[in-house]
Write a structure and sequence with these properties.
This protein is an alpha/beta fold. It is built from eight helices and 14 strands. It has a single domain, classed as Nitrilase/N-carbamoyl-D-aminoacid amidohydrolase, CATH 3.60.110.10.
Length: 291
């Protein structure tokens, strides 16, 4: 008998441009996501993940200190508290990307994890911070994550999180598998012409190499005035065989829902014994060789 869970991903266009007051920008996106969250509840979603920096535009397209005012503490900040209420109300696990303030001047790109009873389980801070391409000035805004690669035991599944640029690095993806993650979620903001050729290559490869499900999110639309490219959506779920089992549209707001049979993890690992056959004692060079 399958161990079936229903998972959801939200991809959405930013509502208001950067010339609007920050509170208006934030409120418009939170309101949009609450509506889509309620849709997820009506569809019986057990675990729902929102997109990277969900309550605003992808502001690292410029370097401007005004965006520091979007930061919040976790879990005591208003967005985490709101989502705690929503999780409890709908009996839904929520993964909520937030621009986190640890102390004044120390900020992280973070995802808060809230269980289906509304309990706050912890957070993941984005580990790998890009600053290498015009329009992706993330080191101006975020310190590299310092919490490692936690796996969260939720009411429905063991969940791991990677955030956007993390997906280009296989090491953390392997650690999450070794720690028992069954579903990995990757909330992202990425544009056509830069990463699209990798979008359906790297993450299914992580799923295959580690024998778990993966949900990848990308926002949609062109964000003015920067217009660093098209956020091309196509959020998807893939299974431990690397097969894409559900995919969203390219250019519109969408709640993507998929049923994941977690027993498939065991089926696949009985065939491909990658964890049994790996040779960590031979990998010293991975950490010794720099850079």
């Amino acid at each position: 008998m399958g161990r079936m869970i229903r998972c959801g991903l939200i991809q959405a266009k930013n509502e208001l441009g950067p010339d609007h007051p920050l509170e208006d920008i934030k409120r418009a996106m939170i309101d949009k996501h609450i509506t889509m969250l309620e849709e997820a509840a009506t569809k019986g979603v057990n675990i729902l993940c929102l997109q990277e920096l969900f309550y605003g535009p992808y502001f690292p397209a410029e370097q401007n200190t005004k965006w520091y005012d979007l930061t919040e503490r976790i879990p005591e900040g208003p967005t985490t508290q709101l989502m705690i209420e929503q999780a409890k109300r709908h009996k839904m696990v929520l993964l909520v990307p937030i621009y986190e303030e640890e102390i004044t001047g120390v900020y992280y790109n973070t995802t808060a994890v809230i269980d289906a009873d509304g309990s706050y389980l912890g957070k993941y801070r984005k580990t790998h911070i890009p600053h290498t391409h015009p329009g992706f000035w993330e080191k101006f805004y975020f310190k590299p994550g310092n919490l490692g690669y936690p796996v969260f035991e939720t009411a429905y599944a063991n969940v791991g999180i990677y955030i956007c640029y993390d997906r280009h690095f296989p090491e953390g993806a392997r650690i999450l598998g070794l720690k028992g993650a069954e579903v990995i979620f990757n909330p992202s903001a990425t544009v056509a012409g830069l990463s699209e050729y990798l979008w359906k290559l790297e993450q299914p490869a992580h799923a295959v190499a580690n024998g778990y499900f993966l949900g990848a999110i990308n926002r949609v639309g062109h964000e003015l005035p920067w217009d660093i490219g098209e956020f091309y959506g196509t959020s998807y779920f893939c299974n431990p065989r690397g097969e894409i089992i559900a995919e969203a549209s390219r250019d519109k707001d969408e709640l993507l829902v998929a049923d994941l049979d977690l027993n498939v993890i065991e089926e696949v690992r009985k065939v491909w014994q990658f964890f049994r056959d790996r040779r960590p004692e031979t990998y010293d060079d991975m950490c010794r060789l720099l850079p």
